[in-house]
Amino acid sequence: MDKQQLHDCHNRIKPFIHNTPVLTSRLIDKISGAHLFFKCENFQRMGAFKMRGAANAIMQLTDKEKQNGVVTHSSGNFAQALSLSAQSLGVKAYIVMPSSAPNVKKEAVKGYGGMLIECEPNLKAREFASQQIVQKHGATFIHPSNDDQVILGQGTACKELLEAHPELDHVVTPVGGGGLIAGTALSALYYGKNCTTIGGEPMEVDDAFRSLKSGKIESNTTTNTIADGLKTQLGDRNFPIIQEHVEEIIRVEEEEIVSAMQIIWGRLKIVCEPSSAVALAAVLKAKEKFAGKKVGIIISGGNVDLGNLPF
Amino acid sequence: MDKQQLHDCHNRIKPFIHNTPVLTSRLIDKISGAHLFFKCENFQRMGAFKMRGAANAIMQLTDKEKQNGVVTHSSGNFAQALSLSAQSLGVKAYIVMPSSAPNVKKEAVKGYGGMLIECEPNLKAREFASQQIVQKHGATFIHPSNDDQVILGQGTACKELLEAHPELDHVVTPVGGGGLIAGTALSALYYGKNCTTIGGEPMEVDDAFRSLKSGKIESNTTTNTIADGLKTQLGDRNFPIIQEHVEEIIRVEEEEIVSAMQIIWGRLKIVCEPSSAVALAAVLKAKEKFAGKKVGIIISGGNVDLGNLPF
Asked: How many other CB atoms sit within 10 Å of the CB of residue A12?
């Protein structure tokens, strides 16, 4: 994917997304020893960067495809993002979600106009249900992270960040399914001045770290992390980009994630998801690497259960 | 206090404060039936609007007075605001605080370079300790809310809000000691187009509501509210301004405050104090009054104990 594609993607989705604010904090700079620029995608529409990739993926469909709608399986932010993007674009969105998913997530999808299809809580059932909708309605399946158009869309957050702060030395993102970090790496490459992309990943689900080591896509046998957006594994579309353009993945412990989350909430005064805090946790873990550097941090989202906080 | 004074005050303090962002939310607009513009003073330096008044009050001192320092008694945001303003301006700040105040508040004052003086937890002891510092060091006492320069400073938040959104019909603020709402009323008068100022006040500490009824400053016999910044009473400097220029004070129940706080955290994705939520609670309580109107809401601060949330 080249610079022109990223440029076109950004122009295409601009009417449907916010150019989210960048926050700084003297106190967090003091704590980290670096100059940090927080790109606040928690303020994005529906509360997460996923809105960008979802909007772009739908907009790249043909008129015929748009008429038949889109389908995905997700119980996270992408379900809401695809629903809201589809609604904004006058397209039908079918969302396959395990029946065990929290009610609040089901309601959010419905609130954004998504058609909810419940299935048994396992991967096979989700894929089967999605496939049925593709066959029955001719809907286009859109993967939450392993899709070129989604990757491009997610990259526009870093593009905006670099347009506002062109001198960043590094950009750090959390790593889940790989769409955000792959898109970010492309933006850093095309719009940064020697700006490198670094990932933060929970030690408990360090599949991306291990994938970079082994050279093939690894998975997680357990997923005991508070960062519930980061349990997924990389895909064949984003992995090669990550291999080529991501400098390093820094792994962090659960208590480091909670501590970073407390710093963001307490000092930056914003509500972010545990997954978002993984990027700051990585910067605080590798202080010597980032000392004195200008570092962009993507705050990926703010959809969190306020009744179930880790502090 | 005239428009020129407010204008000069703003120019004076600009280097020491942030012009804080204004956030909007389609979802909260839907819930309220109005168009809401949240002026986010939780993003202000040290986390609250109090920074504005504190900076202005110190800057209006003579050089001789500045040399002798400033003193206040407060266990809230004004203690931190005076400490940080004084530090930024190279002035000594003495902060009298009851020994019973939470350690985190004492540490915050020290972190901003304030000289902490602990006293017995009653008003007499606080006033005595402050008076001693005035006598011993020649320091100038600065009241957290009942001081013309503080009132002008607090008014600059609404001035910035109206400069960004000149067409507001109403501005709503929480009412505590009266500095914020008095300053806001002056800004609405000088910079608004028929923009009226409205207060939100907890039913549990409705001294300002009763003061407007009776025509004299009333106090609270009990202070059982989660909005801990609003327990104080009006003063002789701000009360006349409030009498003349505040349209109405709307009282809200404790559960309405918590509910508004949840909406702000969950939908706006920002961390605010319970006191801040009182303004939105007032708008939601008087929906018919605000229906279809453009309403500014001052989010007064974001200093909250994350380990002790009401949800």
From this structure: 17
